[in-house]
Amino acid sequence: MDGIRELLGVDLPVVAAPMAGGPTTTGLATAVGAAGAFAFLAAGYKTPEAVAGEIAELRPAGRPFGVNVFVPTPVPVTEADFRRYATRIAAEGTPYGLDLAAAARTEDDDHWAAKLDLLRAEPVPVVSFTFGLPPAPVVRDLRRAGTRVLVTVTDPAEAAAAADLGVDGLVAQSGAAGGHLGTFTPDTPPPPRPLPELVALVAGRTGLPVLGAGGIGGPGDVRAALAAGAVGALVGTLLLRADEAGTGRTHRDALADPLRDRTVVTRAFTGRPARGLRNDFIDRHEAAAPLGYPALHHLTRPLRVAAAGAGDADRLHLWAGTGWRAARAAPAAETISNLTQPL
């Protein structure tokens, strides 16, 4: 396991993926670290002050950890298409007193500059980027500060572009992963490939250390990723029901619901392709949903918050990868242990 130690400073080849929007907590990261694995904090959708607070919570333990940042690569949507979709889904918000048809089209960069300033001023062991390539000066500055830099890629061409920036490693994310696909081109995602195939292609193209992500449902999937050339495997969905995760009750219950029988890739909730459990909102609106991130994310967020609070799983984004059936309500350490026995 020398590869994972050299890249991330841990011995176990399992990494807790960053799950933005609530599931990743400092408690989860602490538990994963205490189990001997590596954990990412999710900076997405948080203020820089909140991210700084989480970093400060983890530092005293002295264990390596990482921070994941969304690269601002907006997917534009016209005002006409935005208004058309807002009007279409307006009835979904009526039970909660929401006027979605009147929502403003909001674009932002998720506090990009301020988060980078924080990570330059208060370096962490590892920073990973998702949704695109960070500018070369960002990679240079972070590495000079002693931070290892990773980029999420979904095909060999993206991997080659990231390698040209001089990054330290890559996260090869297959289409089986839960949540947003990290593709640089959300309008034309790469063809789906089994994770071991993607890992082999990315490692062979770049020669960089690779972490495999997507569809991990048990130790056999970890072994397959390692056999294909990965130094470790990212696990997200399997930790959604962990005791220490911040996953909401409605989402947790849906993951355990035997009537939820498949995951699908959808842009209906956020305007960017993401994998989650199929539900009625997706069935009603996927065909008409435009690309448009983060505008659609902001449009549907009040609805999703209300639905989560009301136990309404059919109006909530139920992010999950294809290995969701193996997610268990248990301490995170138990899940890590199960994934690494035997390796």
Automatic annotation (TrEMBL):
Reaction(s) this enzyme catalyzes, per UniProt: 3 propionate 3-nitronate + 3 O2 + H2O = 3 3-oxopropanoate + 2 nitrate + nitrite + H2O2 + 3 H(+)
Cited CDD domains: NPD_like
GO molecular function terms listed in the Swiss-Prot or TrEMBL record: monooxygenase activity
Entry protein name: Propionate 3-nitronate monooxygenase
InterPro entries associated with the record: Aldolase_TIM, NMO
UniProtKB keywords: Detoxification, Flavoprotein, FMN, Monooxygenase, Oxidoreductase
Cofactor(s) required for function per UniProt: FMN
Pfam families per record: NMO (PF03060)
Family from the record: Belongs to the nitronate monooxygenase family. NMO class I subfamily.
